[in-house]
Amino acid sequence: MDKRNKAALHMTWVKRAKPVLFVLCLxxxxxxxxAAYRGSLGADPVETLTYATGDWTLRxxxxxxxxxxxxxxxxxxxxxxxxRMLGLxxxxxxxxxxxxxxxxxxxxxxxxxxxxxLERRYIMVGMLGFMSLLPLAITSTDKMLKRxxxxxxxxxxxxxxxxxxxxxxxxxxxxxxxxxxxxxYIVILAVLLGYRVVRSTKERRKLQTTSINTx
Length: 215
Ligand code: HEM
Hints:
The protein is mainly alpha-helical and 215 residues long. It has helices at 3-38, 45-74, 80-105, 110-119, 121-138, 142-148, 150-156, 159-174, 180-214. The chain has one domain (3-214). 86% of the residues lie in helices and 0% in strands.
């Protein structure tokens, strides 16, 4: 099969996979909603909701960041089509996470929330992560991509690594004794970031040598 046919085939299955993936991505929140409906969120439902939405924010962020390396490793360029949806699911979960905190934890006490942000470092860094995901969600449309131009858009969307960094530090700082889970997330983020840095350094070097050779 030639390269063009292969790319078309990949494009078709990625297109087909999209609605399936969408339904799969809704499962965590559907499960939470069902548990809330049945009153089986455990002894501390607010804690359950906060932990579950926080965990899924981090998972979706890391899965989103894994799409580009996966695309390079497999050669399936159309995988990129799934990245926006996964990123928006990360944003959706962080909105839920924040909403649970504002409504059920702080009962809309904006002054207390502000104090909490200033006093507790893990809340401040979580807030930073949330704020850095905001421009990414706003500029996720094709229209915004066109308006910003590919280069600026890609530069802005590197903020996703910063948001991931804030997310893992937030988690590390809030745990009191068992650091295993946040450390696993930190290692995954470091591998993903390391891969991108090594690849873009190699690409820059290649570009420099070809431009030297053409002089
Ligand atoms: C990128 C942004 C964020 C990510 C990735 C994230 C992720 C997480 C994770 C993974 C947990 C722990 C879950 C567990 O123990 O299983 C958590 C807990 C928590 N998060 Fe976030 N979070 C973010 C932003 C925020 C923001 C903006 C707030 C509030 C302003 C917030 C408030 C909390 C609270 C109150 C807890 C529970 C702490 C405790 O009970 O010890 N998070 N978050």
